Batch of 2 targets.
Target 1
Amino acid sequence: MVDGLVAIGAGIAVGLAGIGSGLAEKDIGAAAVGAIAENPKMFGQALIFTVIPETIVIFGLVIAILLMFL
Amino acid sequence: MFGRSATAGNYAYATTRVKARKSFLFPRETYMKLLQMSVPEINRFIGESKYKQEIDELATRYDGIDLVEYALNLNLAREMNDILGFCQGELRVIMWAYLMRWDVWNIKSLLRGKFYNATEDDIRETFVPAGSISMQDFNDLLKKGSVPDVVEGLSKTIFYKPLINALDDFNKTKTLAPLENTLDLVYYENLLSIDLPGTKADELFVSFIRREIDFTNLRTLFRLKRAGLEHEKIMPMLIPGGARLNMDDLRKLAQAPGFDDFINLLKEYSYWAETAEAVDRYRQTGSLNAVEIALYKDQIAFAEKISHLYPLSICPILGYAIRKNVEVNNIRTISRGKEMELSDEVIKSQLVI
């Protein structure tokens, strides 16, 4: 029973963090593609800005791992 | 957050693209440099800038001032069509309605050309096909023989029915004013009737359009009061829907007995602050140009201000569209001024920088 609830908690942690990242990345990604369309030299910078919200998922993943293995 | 549907518009993508383009606009120093050049030198200078493609395309057919004129118009049209191309959803709807001002511009040029029997080439030179009516359609309209024929040719546009109704007045007065006023009225009515989501940025966009109506009305009043027209003849030429000057205010201003009375009455209204200095200059020079440029500059400054307030909205795109138009107008003014051998000071006074 407890193991099941822990697994659900871990899933929620990763899932909600993923949704949060997706929402954040939606506009950044669109803006990045816009910037690259005007100036292809912006590719490197645009990529970095796009992946910054990915850190939120990593936080969720860390919480999930802590829940599952500690 | 989740409420924005697929029809909401691609604000992040479109605003980033226009911001990138804005960084390529000519700075003030470039106009000062252009002022030191002759027309062929201006041609070469802009031919090495972002106008290269247009200059290269047209250089075999035109030269001198004609080349500048055609290249600037073509570049402006392409730029506006590009913007329309990458806008989606409600953003596209708003831009589509906003860019119809180029339809109004082109139709007015066409009507004036036909009215004064200008050649097809002369009329074509003034076209900026950046609106909803294509260049192909305008080429077809160019072949029409008279003003009523041109109006008949506009049957697929929103301007058709109001223009047909205005044809009676045109036939009575034998002036283009009723048709031109109808075009302006239809344009602004259509723009203000768009169903916007009602965000703060949308409100600013609407207030920008309403200010533009005020400035258009003020410009009309300045011109017509100076020409000594009676208020009955002025009122049909004014556009309702302004931000700070409603039709009652405009009627009061139009009813002023003379031009000086009109100026004195204007001091009671909030736009006096924007026009006071220019009116002083008018009194010194006798030219209304200073007043018109002051009004235009104020409107551009307002567009510039709102374009920074809400980054993910229509405002930055509107700001860019206006700045691009200003750039094209400035280059045209310098080229025309150089062609007519005007002094740098005179040309500079006509620039919006």
Target 2
Amino acid sequence: MKTIKVAGVIQNAFSSEQAKLLKSEIEKELVMEETVELDFTDISKFTTLFFNFSTGYFISKLGKTEYDRRIKVKNLTKLGESAYRNSYENAVGDNNKSNVEDEIMSILSSPDE
Amino acid sequence: MIKTYVKEQSFYAEIDNRIDDNFQDISDLIDLQFEFLNSTHSKLVILFTDCTFINASVSVIIGTLPKYAYTVDKRVNYRFKGPSPHPVLKFMKMVGMYKYYTKREIEYDGKDAVPFNCIRDEKMMDEYTEKIMELAPIKMSKDAKDILSSYIYEIYQNGFFHSKSEIGVFTSGYWVKEKREFNFSIYDMGVGIPDKIRRHFNQEIDSEKCLQIAFVEGFTTSDKNGVSRGLGLTRLRQFIRLNNGKMSIYTGDICCIIDRHEKEQYRRLKNPIRGTLIIINIAADEKHIYVVE
């Protein structure tokens, strides 16, 4: 397993540009390594969009099962954990797609105010 | 109260009172925007007569109008009648609106103001978020700063990436030291949330329902890069509720207010706003610890 020290690649986990830098690093490592671990030590600022454009890309590309097997994250702050989880759940949305669709159908079929 | 009339081929609007961040005052400004942009008149003159106060968060509606009007070959003039220096002109200088349009350096005494400006890219979002945190008149722990700045950045990102606004995303705000509050707004004049949802489903859907759908956890839209993402509202709503804040969203012909109450409150606008205006009020107290779930 290869560990990527995220703080060595980017300063904070805010923008799509920073996300693309991390995405390139992950892509490089995945060619050679079976599993990659992302260590977020010293990163304290996060947005959901950052994860959408970095880890989210690999969830879409590999699928949930393969992603969960090959990519691990560690040392996220509580804020980082919250943003990561939000992005992860959006990206693996197919798992609870029927619940989301049910909720949307219920909104659409309710009478207009 | 805004009085409108037509004189010598121009559209006139007289603002003779305070403009606060309440539903009625914001609706009046949205009506003015709608009537002018949908009229055949190419010039709008806004007369600030006895107006003594404009809320900084709401001022983005007035501030963006000249910029947008220009893109559709219309013009907007501000005129000030009354005491000198006029309080509204003074306010425009304080919040940076005067400098934005005239490019003139002026004595800047709005030390608690988040200057009115257009956010054009992520680098600017980063700089602006930093600036907002530097302007904070209170001392916050590093954790509190990290959390608040991350959410401010995320609010900018949502506006920037989802609206596809031709003129960028505008922002303005104020740290209200006495009330220990931070108020700021972000306004894009791009595709409003209801239209975005209607396009996604390719059907006519009531605006209130569109916003309800935007708040469904796990509802995502995909961009051309194949990256799935939500509209970002669910997470913001959670942050606002956990931290006793308030978020008002004006988009399409609907206003949605989110606060500590479990249910969002919806109010219908007489005329639709162009794009989406989000106003955030959040506690800014040195003792406040921002909470994330």
